[in-house]
Amino acid sequence: MKRSIVKQKVKLYLLASVVIFAGIMKNDNACALTLGAVGDEEMLARRRQVEEMDADKDQAALAKVSQDDSEDAFTRRIAVSKLKDQALLAELAKSGSTIGVRREATEKLEDQALLAEIAVNDVAREVRTIATVWLKDQAILAQIATNDAENGTVRGYAIQKLEDQELLTKISMTGTNYYLRAMAAATLKDKTLLRKFATTGEEVPLRQFAILQLRDQELAAKVAKNDVSEQVRHTAVSCLDDQELLADVVKKSNHKNDEAFLLAIGKLTDQALLAEIAKNDENEDVRNAIQHRLDVLQGRIKEEKIQGIDLPIP
């Protein structure tokens, strides 16, 4: 069965995989051009023919298509995705003529030594990323996390898989951009350092990832009331489940009337507590928001969808 990046545990990278695919389509000129040729019936028929080839019975035909530069790039990728011959996949992963072919072959590789070679040496970020996703060698992952030519996605995947807490700590404090520092923080086990990042980290994503990693109710409530960034406060409120702490956020927040504050109200379920807050709060907008929440809880109006966490991607 074909492996997929979607299986990775960090949801942020689901978005990154979309960026990767977009990069492949941009760089694989033949593929990009042919995708627009909707009227080219012969080409589309050829793609359908390859799609319908049996992955068990038609390996010879699929191998031929995968190596034929006269085939359009997308058709070749379809063929590669069905290949089982690890030797041929290795050849295509190392020397395929398009990024898409190398990427598709690399995703099916089982040879860890070859994956390491590709992760370090392939000229295309997209191919290095796929190799890194399936790489297990911690030494090579550490090398990629600190030295990959492009200071972004590939390093991020390597950081996600690192087990070296000392190196992760170093990256989280001295990494060359906020994205890498945040990813390292999200993998840390040192709660003391994570608490420091959650409250005093310089960048918004760093504080967000630290809060998500900790899931500390008391700390999340503190951040939800006081952080200067609405994004961070929103992330903190999203982690809160304790009704008393949510009520405290509503009562004492220094940033009322923004999305994070409204999210806190939207997570309260104790109607008596909501009524008490509404009775004592001097802010008319707060009272109106609480009345709206009470109307929802009492079935007078439909509940509105609470927005998810907004995590920036570089």
| Radius of gyration, taken over Cα atoms and rounded to an integer in Å | 25 Å
Mean pLDDT: 83
- % residues in beta strands: under 5%
Q: Structural class from helices and strands?
A: mainly alpha
What profile does the largest beta sheet have? none
Number of domains: 2
pLDDT below 50 for ≥5 consecutive residues: which ranges? Answer: 4-39, 306-314
Instruction: Report the end-to-end length measured between terminal Cα atoms.
Output: 32 Å
**Overall 3D geometry?**
elongated
SSE order, one letter for each helix or strand: HHHHHHHHHHHHHHHHHHHHH
Number of helices: 21
Question: What's the arrangement of secondary structure elements?
Answer:
Layout (H helix, E strand, L loop, with lengths): L11 H16 L1 H7 L5 H11 L7 H9 L5 H9 L4 H10 L3 H9 L4 H10 L3 H10 L3 H10 L5 H9 L3 H10 L3 H10 L3 H10 L3 H11 L2 H10 L3 H10 L3 H10 L6 H9 L3 H10 L3 H14 L17
Helix pairs in contact: 3-5, 4-5, 5-7, 6-7, 7-9, 8-9, 9-11, 10-11, 11-13, 12-13, 13-15, 14-15, 15-17, 16-17, 16-18, 17-19, 18-19, 20-21
